[in-house]
Amino acid sequence: MAGKPPQSDPVQDAPQVSEPQHAAAGLPAIGHTLRMAQRQMGVKRTALTLLRLNQKDGFDCPGCAWPEPEHRHTAEFCENGAKAVAEEATLRRVTPDFFAAHPVADLATRSGYWLGQQGRLTHPMYLAEGADRYEAVSWERAFDIVAEELKALASPDEALFYTSGRTSNEAAFLYQLFAREFGTNNLPDCSNMCHESSGSALNETIGIGKGSVLLEDLYKADLIVVAGQNPGTNHPRMLSALEKAKAGGARIITVNPLPEAGMERFKNPQTAQGMLKGAALTDLFLQIRIGGDQALFRLLNKLILETEGAVDTAFVDEHTHGYEEFAEAARAADWDETLTATGLTRAQIDEALAMVLASERTIVCWAMGLTQHKHSVPTIREVVNFLLLRGNIGRPGAGVCPVRGHSNVQGDRTMGIFERPAPAFLDALEKEFGFAPPRGHGYDVVRAIRAMRDDKAKVFFAMGGNFVSASPDTEVTEAAMRRARLTVHVSTKLNRSHAVTGARALILPTLGRTERDLQGGGEQFVTVEDSMGMVHASRGRLEPASEHLLSEPAIVCRLARRVLGEGSRTPWEEFEKDYATVRDRIARVVPGFDDFNAKVADPAGFALPHAPRDERRFPTATGKANFTAAPVEYPKLPEGRLLLQTLRSHDQYNTTIYGLDDRYRGIRNGRRVVLVNPEDARELGLADGSYTDLVSEWKDGVERRAAGFRVVHYPTARGCAAAYYPETNVLVPLDATADTSNTPASKSVVVRLEQSVTN
Ligand code: SF4
């Protein structure tokens, strides 16, 4: 019955395994979507809600950051977007009675799936010091408690202000403004754990940490390389764009250790032809060895350099720096070792090269499969080298395309959510608001966890998200969180982070993106920035889940007034009443947002400027696009070990578990599974269906164990295994991060598989 959460908690995983599928979406996706939506919202609300999703006068999907097409379909969403919205618009409620019945110790035993299925939070809840359960508290009292703890700190730098990528531009701008007026740059965000490596590499090489292609460019490309990404689950509407690009003559190279149904065939539910037959997407599947992507692009670059006339010398001469040094390094690359690092054959490399040389407009798309390794930044620089060689930046149908996984994660960074803000941004903030913002760099996610572990940070405040489940080294992270004086979560639904608390804890329930936001100045809308730098409005349309909810901007403004007091000259009250006044300030502080309110009045939104794309101007240290001559790196594997990548199931979005199935991979009713190549399993003596413990090995000698995983013989690349997070985040050492970006290296964890002691 709609609105009724599952009573029993299926902690005990009982995965059933069948053959992986070879096509994504189609009729099953429609059926799955409607069944799941009806369970959460009932029939009428399902129709009301989904027909407003991603529409010009509707609300933006709180799922991934895939852009909206100019022409919106009646059903302009994918299965996973519908899941995200249904969980937010659910009729299920988590009331004070729920907390009275469930002490924190009980909540801590519950699976993330069960917690998330309980529904929407309705009241501010407080866990007093020494208490065993949350109790309802007034907003005023809640802000008092936060103010007490913040004011008791020896330094503002003992506070952490975390942001998840769902936070709107207006809330993010106000949040960073509050944190900086309070006196700290401790603004860790979920981008630290996902595309930070992309930002670091692109800022250095092309001068801006964002993708250079718009949706239309995908339709104009004649070669699209999709590397380290599983769009079928994580950015499903991208499949429609790839289908359209193919129809326009594009060819697709997929680079992934795992064959994924979505990149094999897409059954587009928007057309009868699509639904029945579908479209094959991938022309060449390169089943790369985990962490072998830099080596692959290095070999392609080496061959391009060795091919007469293949280099766009006019572009290279006019727009780039460092070509000679890079070319020398590429020419010197050792074939055998570099090829081994890829796990591919020479024939496959040659086939890819032929497609590259036949292309005049190439785009490379990527996601976590490239960003969560020790050598991710050099890998993405090598991708840029690959595109620069043939002038594939700054012209239609060509460019870099990091695909963001959270609906406004790029927007949050643009609004100043960054622990290492640019001096120019702080100068603009100081000029606009008349206070001296802190200039010292703050903590990113990994450093924030260390700071809590080492008692250097005592107050943790999260704007959305599920920090403890998203973070690496689960036992270390949870122990660190429990050392805090106060943990505060601005949330829509229950999650594990609410059960791993500081001495005191608060849960502050907020409006969802689907919900009407009425403030003193009337009905408000917020804005988001998608993965391609398009900014548009999002208007909530549903009645709020509870009369006790506050919007994210209202929470920040009231907290700021309570904490900063009369001393602050920032018009927090005005900002709370009318978000247009916030946008006026954003227009004066953030480049590209001039005339913000006027520009966002256009239902299609507007594109932010991107100098490399728009003018082939590269605002780097050299004033040119920079080639990089980095040594090729790849993970080394001791005998009898496997390289594990942590990943999402199809019934999952980041740490939100919508269900226990991963139907494209043939997994049902269970999450504690490890996908292992049959040859590797045979050599390790692991029968399909047997149970194993995963033990990661790291130089600190600490044994990190994830117990009781069902072995699934799966066509992964040799030496490479895969399992879901957050269950396997316990295996990722806190200090195992990417060089430069400090992103957790969750995609290449060295593990041994031991006979399970629990099953
Ligand atoms: S592709 Fe992403 S943004 Fe679009 S509906 Fe699906 S989850 Fe939402």
UniProtKB/TrEMBL annotation:
Q: Where is the Molybdopterin dinucleotide-binding domain?
A: 642-749
| Domain spans labelled Molybdopterin oxidoreductase | 120-492
Annotated Gene Ontology cellular component terms: membrane
- Which residues are in coiled coils? none
For region Disordered, the annotated ranges are: 1-21
- Superkingdom, natural source: Bacteria
Task: List the Pfam families.
Answer: Molybdopterin, Molydop_binding
What keyword terms does UniProt attach to this protein? 4Fe-4S, Iron, Iron-sulfur, Metal-binding, Molybdenum, Oxidoreductase
Which cofactors are required for activity? Mo-bis(molybdopterin guanine dinucleotide); [4Fe-4S] cluster
Q: Which GO terms describe its molecular function?
A: 4 iron, 4 sulfur cluster binding; formate dehydrogenase (NAD+) activity; molybdenum ion binding; molybdopterin cofactor binding
Q: Which Gene3D superfamilies does the entry link to?
A: 3.40.50.740, Dimethylsulfoxide Reductase, domain 2
Family, per entry: Belongs to the prokaryotic molybdopterin-containing oxidoreductase family.
Which NCBIfam families does the entry link to? Fdhalpha-like
What PANTHER family does its record include? PROTEIN YDEP, RESPIRATORY NITRATE REDUCTASE
- Write the protein's name: FdhF/YdeP family oxidoreductase
Organism of this sequence: Streptomyces apricus
Highest lineage ranks of the organism? Bacteria, Bacillati, Actinomycetota, Actinomycetes, Kitasatosporales
